[in-house]
Amino acid sequence: MGEHLQKAVQALKERFDATSSEFRDEVSVFLQPEQIVAACTLLRDEFDFEMLADETAVDYWPQETPRFHIVYQIYSYKHNERICLRVPLNGNQPSIQTIEAVYPNANWYEREVYDLFGIHYEGHSDLRRILMPHDWEGYPLRKDYPLGHEEIMFSFNFDEINARKRYAKE
């Protein structure tokens, strides 16, 4: 970890009582939901992390506390460094403040996370579906989303599946 990145992580730890971890040269800082806007502002204004490279979510269902993590990848062109911010969210109706005011491109990332995970972004300028049809029910990347599938036929289950087919009964 470079000196600049160490200073940024240390500032996040001191100001927000955050924790951090490092794995395979990637630094992750864990924050509380109410701290995300201030943390992003700090990184942008004081440590030259000028680009939100990615924002997504992880679902840890059936675990409820936390059920989700919002993952922000923030990049500094000036220092050629990347930092990962992780924010845990509890429950089935999670909500977090938008970071559009800090990183305007968060608009699209947050709409995608809302559309696929159902995470609500408070203060978002245009929170509506972006990938799924507007009348779609549910959130497809949640682990409890019902999967529709057709069983694959192999030699060991051929007779069982074939007996259930419509044309086999006629």
Would you give an account of this structure?
The protein has helices spanning 3-16, 36-47, 106-117, 158-164, 166-169, and strands spanning 19-23, 26-30, 51-59, 68-76, 81-89, 95-97, 120-122. The longest helix has 14 residues, at 3-16. It has a single domain (3-169), classed as Beta Polymerase, domain 2, CATH 3.30.460.80. The chain contains five helices and seven strands; from the N terminus they run αββαββββαβαα. α1 runs antiparallel to α2 (36-47). Helices cover 29% and strands 25% of the residues. The strands form two sheets. It has a five-stranded mixed beta sheet. A two-stranded parallel sheet has the order 6-7.
Break the fold down into its secondary structure elements and pairings.
Layout lengths: L2 H14 L2 E5 L2 E5 L5 H12 L3 E9 L8 E9 L4 E9 L5 E3 L8 H12 L2 E3 L35 H7 L1 H4 L1
Parallel strand pairs: 2-5, 6-7
Antiparallel strand pairs: 1-2, 3-4, 4-5
Helix content: 25-40%
Uncertain runs are none
CATH class: Alpha Beta
3D shape? elongated
- How many strand segments? 7
The average pLDDT value, as a whole number, equals: 92
Annotated CATH homologous superfamily: NADH:ubiquinone oxidoreductase Nqo5 subunit
Structural class: alpha/beta
Order of helices and strands: HEEHEEEEHEHH
**Which architecture would the CATH scheme give at its second level?**
2-Layer Sandwich
Calculate Rg over CA atoms: 21 Å
Biggest beta-sheet profile: 5 strands, mixed
Q: State the CATH topology.
A: Beta Polymerase, domain 2
In order across it, which strands form the biggest sheet? 1-2-5-4-3
**What is the percentage of strand-forming residues?**
25-35%
Straight-line distance between termini: 68 Å
Report the total helices. 5
Counting structural domains, the number is 1
